[in-house]
Structure formats: structure tokens, C-alpha cells
């Protein structure tokens, strides 16, 4: 059973703060995100450079820490260029639509328990709702309108294609992401982020020692599916098809010069990455709760210490996103769509049915759930689902190789009909073939009609 501390906030603790405390928390959240963007850009450049055996930023400031500040000043002072054919209203509004929902989505992320802030007991979270996770999904869907409008208002074919790609990508991966949360809702019994963190407070025991019941362990397939959808939702490599520098120049942002509008677009992308990392920590990695064995300390989850644990988990998740960017190439568009519709959504539905069945079996007569055999059952179920997916992927790869081999064989047989097939066209059969299409050609003696 879960162990709830007195410092754990509940939905009843929200909406009671004085206005000045709410303003202070909003300013603290805004400062955290803005400083996080500046530091995150520098950290991503440094980490990727180390992976590629380079130095990265090292000129502006100590260790290049002021490089992001210099870039921001440069984009803010550069001349703002408007192409002649753009729709100016939507062209200016699109970057704003990308940024504001990203800020609002992060407002439901809990940073810690109840604390004393200037003499007032308040939760370290700006706002919480009974449907907080759905609010986050709604904000993510609204921000896509900014990408679509940016591509459409630019009146450029490359920008328009980038906007259309983004719309199709979000429709595909928003469904899979929402389904990956269903298992969490079934176990937590709520859609409130603070209540979901509370549901991960202490689970089973291992060798007589209390272990945290993170949903990333109990619901491993849901966590893995969310990780994949996280890249698709944030449009990060290998799923950065809306930008597609290789084939679309810059995608939806092609017509935006390196000015303040471009800075807002970059800010919106980083905020979506931060939101995806924060939601991963909150729903699957225990939130602000201390990891084991630090959780054995009685004061680990009280006071301001949980902010440190949240930040460590957040930084590690963000580092994983950067690691994937430095390791994997961009996938093809058909591969992106096939993965979302043919793999993630069916796998999600099968896993939800399995989780719901397990919860129904565990339901007892008094109307409560028992967690006595929870971990072994779910670990076994996760192993079955992952094994089935691995077997399917293996046989699908084999079938794909067979199709490619048959195609290569047909092409080779077709090319044998001509010594020099025309490049890009139909091969021209030579005139000296003794047999061609099953018709035998006989030599005609010279001088005869």
C-alpha cells in the first residue's frame, strides 16, 4: 500500500493561496523556464560536442556559458524581415501560439511537497486540476496550431509542407501518448499530477527494504511508449519531420529570419521538450520524491530537498533526449506514420486491456485494491508484451528483407534483357537477340526478299 506523508499536497490544498503568493510562484516558474532555456541550449551544445569529440561553445564567457545570452541578444537586435506574400497577422501570431501554451502546460508540474513560503504553507506547484494531465495534452495540441499557421501564413511550399507534416505527426502521436497515460490513471485512480506523485510513494519490499513504486517500473510498456511519443510530440530527432532541414530547408520556419520571431519559435520548441521531460518525471519516475536508497532518509521528501531530486531526474531525462539526438538519424515520413498507427496504438490498446484485467482481478470485496502481488504480475505481463513486440519486429524485418530480395531479383531479370538499359527509362532490347519474348528470330540470307 502507498504511504502518504503529511506534507503531501492534495487537490484541496490548491486555490487557497493569497494572490501575492500565486504571483511569486508564477514568477519563480517563469524564471526557472527562462534560465532553463538559456542553460539548456548551452548544455545541449556542450554534450553533443563531447559526444562528437569537439569542444563546443568556449568563447563567450567562462566555459561558453554566455553563448546563449549572446545569441538571444543577437536575435533580438537583428532586423525583422517580412516577406511580401505572408499573411502578417498569422505570421506574427504563430510564434506566440507556440510559446504561451508551452508555459501553461508546465504549470501543472509539481516541484515538491507543502513548504513554508514567506510564512504561508503552500504546495510547490503553481496549479493542479482534477484533469491536469488532460490540460497538458490540450496545451500541447493547441501549440501545434502555431506550427501549422506558421507554415501556412508564410506562403512558401517548404513551410507549408512542414506545417502539414506537423499536423499529421501530432494527430498520430497525440493518440498514442494519451493511451500511454491510461495505465497510470488506472493505478493512480486520478488525473491530478499531485495525486499521481502521491500514488508512487513507496511500494513493495525487496529483501525487507521498502522500494519506490515508480510507474516506469510497474508500467514499463506504458513508459517506453511514452518515451517514443515524447520525441514525436516535441518534434525532436529522430522525429523532427516538421523542420526537415535536409529536404525542406527549414520546414515551417523557413521564412522566419533570425530575429525575435525565430527566437520565440526556438523557445517554444525547448519549452515543449521541458514539458515532456517534466511529465515523464511526474507520471513515471516518482515526481519530486527521492529515489531509493535516498528515500530511506526520513527527511528526504520534506522541505525543499524534493526540489533537488526533481531537478536531478529532470536533468537526466533531458540528457537522454540530447543523447538520442546525437545518436540517431531522422526517420522517413512513412516510417514515422507506420510506427505511430501500426505499432504504438495497437500495442497501447493491448497493454491497456491487460492492465485493466489485472486491476479487475486485484479488486477485492471491500472496494479497495491490494498490491501484494502487483510487481511480479506486472513485470511478467510487461515481459510478455515486450517479447511479443520483439518477435513481431523480427519477423517483420525478415518479411521486409524477403520483399527487397524479390524486388532486386525481378529488377535483375529485367535488366538482363538489355546490355545497356537507358538511365531512368525503359531498357532498349538489342537487335541481335536470338530469342526475345519467346519469339525465335531466324537469320534471313542476304539478297532475298
From TrEMBL:
Matches recorded under Pfam families: NADHdh
InterPro entries: NADH_UbQ_OxRdtase_su1/FPO, NADH_UbQ_OxRdtase_su1_CS
Transmembrane segments: 20-43, 89-109, 129-150, 171-191, 211-231, 270-291, 303-324, 336-362, 374-393
The protein's Enzyme Commission number: 7.1.1.-
Class of enzymatic activity (EC top level): translocase
Source species, domain of life: Bacteria
Membrane topology: Multi-pass membrane protein
A GO term from the CC aspect: plasma membrane
Record-level GO BP terms: aerobic respiration
Segments for region (Disordered): 414-449
Role according to the record: NDH-1 shuttles electrons from NADH, via FMN and iron-sulfur (Fe-S) centers, to quinones in the respiratory chain. The immediate electron acceptor for the enzyme in this species is believed to be ubiquinone. Couples the redox reaction to proton translocation (for every two electrons transferred, four hydrogen ions are translocated across the cytoplasmic membrane), and thus conserves the redox energy in a proton gradient. This subunit may bind ubiquinone.
Entry similarity comment: Belongs to the complex I subunit 1 family.
The name this protein goes by in its record: NADH-quinone oxidoreductase subunit H
UniProt source species: Nonomuraea muscovyensis
Amino acid at each position: 500500500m502507498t504511504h502518504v506523508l503529511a506534507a503531501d499536497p492534495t487537490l484541496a490544498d490548491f486555490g487557497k493561496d493569497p494572490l501575492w503568493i500565486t504571483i511569486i510562484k508564477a514568477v519563480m516558474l517563469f524564471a526557472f523556464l527562462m534560465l532553463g532555456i538559456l542553460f539548456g541550449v548551452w548544455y545541449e551544445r556542450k554534450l553533443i560536442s563531447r559526444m562528437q569529440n569537439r569542444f563546443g561553445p568556449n568563447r563567450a564567457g567562462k566555459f561558453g556559458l554566455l553563448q546563449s545570452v549572446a545569441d538571444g541578444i543577437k536575435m533580438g537586435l537583428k532586423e525583422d524581415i517580412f516577406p511580401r506574400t505572408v499573411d502578417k497577422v498569422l505570421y506574427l501570431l504563430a510564434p506566440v501560439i507556440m510559446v504561451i501554451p508551452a508555459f501553461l502546460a508546465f504549470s501543472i508540474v509539481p516541484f515538491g511537497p507543502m513548504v513554508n513560503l514567506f510564512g504561508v504553507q503552500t504546495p510547490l506547484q503553481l496549479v493542479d486540476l482534477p484533469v491536469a494531465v488532460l490540460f497538458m495534452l490540450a496545451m500541447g495540441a493547441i501549440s501545434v496550431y502555431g506550427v501549422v499557421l506558421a507554415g501556412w501564413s508564410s506562403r512558401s511550399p517548404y513551410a507549408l509542407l512542414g506545417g502539414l507534416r506537423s499536423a499529421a505527426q501530432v494527430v498520430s502521436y497525440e493518440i498514442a501518448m494519451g493511451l500511454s497515460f491510461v495505465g497510470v490513471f488506472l493505478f493512480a485512480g486520478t488525473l491530478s499530477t499531485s495525486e499521481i506523485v502521491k500514488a508512487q510513494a513507496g511500494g513493495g519490499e525487496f529483501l525487507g527494504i521498502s522500494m519506490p513504486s515508480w510507474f516506469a517500473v510497474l508500467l514499463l510498456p506504458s513508459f517506453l511508449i511514452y518515451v517514443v511519443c515524447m520525441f514525436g510530440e516535441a518534434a525532436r530527432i529522430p522525429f523532427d519531420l516538421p523542420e526537415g532541414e535536409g529536404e525542406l530547408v527549414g520546414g515551417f520556419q523557413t521564412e522566419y529570419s533570425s530575429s525575435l520571431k525565430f527566437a520565440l519559435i526556438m523557445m517554444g520548441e525547448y519549452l515543449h521538450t521541458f514539458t515532456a521531460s517534466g511529465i515523464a518525471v511526474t507520471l513515471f519516475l516518482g515526481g519530486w520524491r527521492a529515489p531509493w536508497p535516498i528515500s530511506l532518509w526520513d527527511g528526504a521528501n520534506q522541505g525543499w530537498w524534493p526540489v533537488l531530486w526533481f531537478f536531478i531526474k529532470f536533468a537526466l531525462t533531458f540528457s537522454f533526449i540530447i543523447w538520442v539526438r546525437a545518436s540517431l538519424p531522422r526517420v522517413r515520413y512513412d516510417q514515422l506514420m507506420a510506427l505511430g498507427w501500426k505499432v504504438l496504438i495497437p500495442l497501447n490498446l493491448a497493454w491497456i486491456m491487460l492492465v485493466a484485467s489485472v486491476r479487475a482481478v486485484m479488486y477485492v470485496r471491500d472496494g479497495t485494491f491490494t498490491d501484494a502481488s502487483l510487481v511480479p504480475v506486472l513485470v511478467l505481463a510487461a515481459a510478455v508484451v515486450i517479447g511479443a513486440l520483439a518477435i513481431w519486429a523480427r519477423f517483420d524485418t525478415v518479411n521486409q528483407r524477403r520483399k527487397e530480395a524479390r524486388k532486386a531479383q525481378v529488377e535483375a531479370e529485367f535488366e538482363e534483357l538489355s546490355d545497356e538499359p537507358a538511365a531512368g527509362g525503359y531498357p532498349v532490347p538489342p537487335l541481335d537477340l536470338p530469342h526475345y519474348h519467346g519469339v525465335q528470330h531466324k537469320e534471313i540470307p542476304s539478297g532475298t526478299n
